[in-house]
Fold these 2 entries.
Entry 1:
Amino acid sequence: MITSHPPSIKAMVQAVPRSLGSYGPVLQEIEQALQSPQCNLSTIGDAIQKDPDLTARLLRLANSPFFGFANRLSTVAEAVSLLGIQQIQDMIVASSVLEQFKGVPDKFVNKDSFWRHSLAVGITARLLAMERRLPKPDKFFVAGLLHDVGRLVLLSQAAEWAQTVFELYQRERLLLREAEKRVLGYDHQQIASELLQSWSYPPVLVQAVAFHHTPGQSVARMEAAVVHIADHLVNAMGIGSSGEQFIPPLEDKAWSLLGLELETLTKIVEAVDEQILAVEEAFLKNDPPAGHERKL
Amino acid sequence: MVVARDIKNIDGMLLAPSGCELTERQINILQAWGVTEVEVEADDKLAQAHDPLAQLPPEVLGRMTADLRARFWKPDEFGPVPAEIFKLMLLRQARHSLRPLA
């Protein structure tokens, strides 16, 4: 039954359970290992190896063109030493965030398609950051992966209002974000901002997600601009979808801020095409049987 | 291969005029004269073979362009960056459509 007023962002976010899903035990063990004075790569590797599915996915990703290492990595300890503990933790946590929304019905947004879109924006944001030589490009992968998480909160917590939003955007051929604002008075960026803040995500990452459609308004303009351009490119490439029917507009200023040559776009698009299948394999394929569904 | 601009040695002596067809033997002679690069006329057929847009039937290309345009938000208001992205996406789609089925 639809209520007369849309739910507040806070109420929706508070209703989302904070859980690390099936990777919770591994993450907890990594945390504990990191606090121990005897911690080394092998103890972290051992913690990860207790989960065979995570181990297989991690090695698949580590040996993919996403990282492009010259030699094949065969042990988790090697992968941890080359990828870094922080990066592995970040990726597992970000994946577990999206995993929490697996119960969202496919009525408006197909979840596999949503995942593909999110992964591709993560890959593209990371490539843009690397090209621009920004520090910690892997943080941009996480920001890209989570950029549309606000939409999942809306779909899971206020399905009737989401339906009104989707009906309006189809009927009047609006951008989905415009329809969200008209119906709810806020958009998915604001929902994601509230969610990630309440989960104590770093402020820069929150800003990159919260202003990925309006990077000029962000205090972390560069980070938001990277995710903004990545989202535009991936929509244009048609890799998955987070429900939007149009390719959202691109702020020319965001591109100028990055200071990259236009020719770079060709290189980025080719690299995304090269990496997406391998990254999808690591994150999406060969899921264990029902009841143990998970992604890296 | 047809020479596009006169080929001269460092003293300005003409080695091969523009319009001249280059044979393998002539290339060897030019190399002996220390010539490391020459300008040749573009081979239209070769260029066409490398341009996926030129390989598509006009009606297919027209439909592809219209479909892509319909997916962009306000394509009439494109700045230089979205315009470049549009061209890039059209090329990418053309390449994908020409790829032999696995």
Entry 2:
Amino acid sequence: MISHVLAAAPAGGSNPTLASFYGQPWWMIVLKVVVLFVFLMLTTLFMIWAERRVIGRMQQRPGPNRAGPFGLLQSLLDGIKLALKEDIVPRGVDKLLFWLAPAISAIPALISFSVIPFGPEVSIFGVHTPLQVADLPVAVLLVLAMSSMGVYGIVLAGWASSSPYSLLGGLRSSAQVISYEIAMGLSFVAVFLYSGSLSTTAIVNAQANGAQFHLFGVILHWPSWFAVLLLPSFLIYLVTMVGETNRLPFDLPEGEGELVGGFHTEYSSLKFAIFYLAEYVNMTTVAGLATTLFLGGWRAPWPISVWSGSNAGWWPLLWFLAKVGILLFCFIWLRGTLPRIRYDQLMKLGWKVLIPVSLAWIMMIATIRVWRSQGGSVPVYIVGGAILAALLALAWAGDMASERRRVAREGPADDEEMEGGQSPSGAPSFPVPPLDLPHYHGIGVAAGVAGSLAGRDGAAAGIGGRPAGPAASDSVKEVTGA
Amino acid sequence: MLTLYVPILMLAALAALFAGFSLVMGALAGPKRWNRAKLQAYESGIEPTPQPSGGGRFPVKYYLTAMLFILFDIEIIFLYPWAVTFRSLGVFGLVEMVLFIVTVLVAYAYVWRRGGLEWD
């Protein structure tokens, strides 16, 4: 029965193209939309549970393990509990925006997952359809647009709350997200150079097969994942996807030590839960996008891909979920491992490292490809590498110069503090108490301390020795009945 | 062409329905107990800072970041069509794009040199 309902499409038609998305029956669209929605909800619940469990393991404690098997129901019950909590709307908030902001951050988060392909064409109830809700000629652009829309939710939540923590958290968060979005957008360009399309199905198809080569009479393929071909782009994307989702080590918008909860400090009940949902759906989306653009999408990883049936039927769903799962685990791993970085370091990394490196890398890739299409050969790699190195050196020199100017202007104030340098008198500037303080050696004060102890609780009188003053001796008399 | 957008719009409608339902449910299901302190902005237990009506002030630095973002985002938007049609444009496209990126890099270098990318 199941095998009839969910049969694999014939091998010939298993590679979907943009054309496969036309003429789907309406009930199929509804089915896929609802399944995707439920999938995202379950992923969020599962991710929160997995995060708490894994972080727990990393910190030598069990994590939530009471509600249901392995504590699996914990996040669901937390959600229900949040729904039963009071929905506080503080005085002075902008009511309309305060209510709208959670929706504005959650809806785009949910939409952007619709263009992520889960698998090739399969047959559901006898209808051949791609395992993907929608695809567009500009699918990746849709994801970028939606992640920009999500920023509105954050900044409006911070602004409408009328609280300094929320305002600062919202501003920091939006500044961080838009800064990292530039590097993120640039890291995609190299992928589009290779795939020649913004459609996610086309990008997955472009990673199907690497160029063939012969080794001892066996036909082998070069790796075809863009993560291998375009490693710098992939690395840049990995950094930006953590920055985009405001996760550790880039979680300054909600740095608990300074801003409490950041932009959602004033939110409670289900509004708070919706922000949480948006955050975790965004994590899943960026992981799914990384899988699609760089890790071959739903295609089987190398040793498995030798088996010809690995990319047909429902197997690709497994590969896709495994890849996304590994990336999501890395998110948790980062959170369990790394400390939070400083805000100026964050912005410096985004603006002064990721953007110039991305631009230089794109130019290098483009030059190489043009060169090879014109019949050029290997030396171009050396030239390209030299150009890249020159650009990086230029950027570095510029930064050094500006740092020197800053130091010359303001004086090396913080360097002295950091290194604990000597103050003019020769004593260490760090507040170390002098070593000849009387109480350090127990001389002179010991009796006084003992006396006051005796005065306070009497019981120590026998041990305390001679009382230090008349008041103390009086109280001793009282207690002992003398 | 536009039929490709139908599933996305349906998902958007479902998401909006869900968000709206949750917002209303959260307001209806929970208890309502009035308390003066509860309605004040949370500032870790100290008296809340009085906020000017119409939003607080914030460092102008964030405006600068937002404007730089627009500059670079537009650059990216120009890079995408070029990347997609890269093969047919060939050497001409490459030279054009290098000229364009150099132009943007001038602005970038200017901002960098003037300290627009410094945070403290």
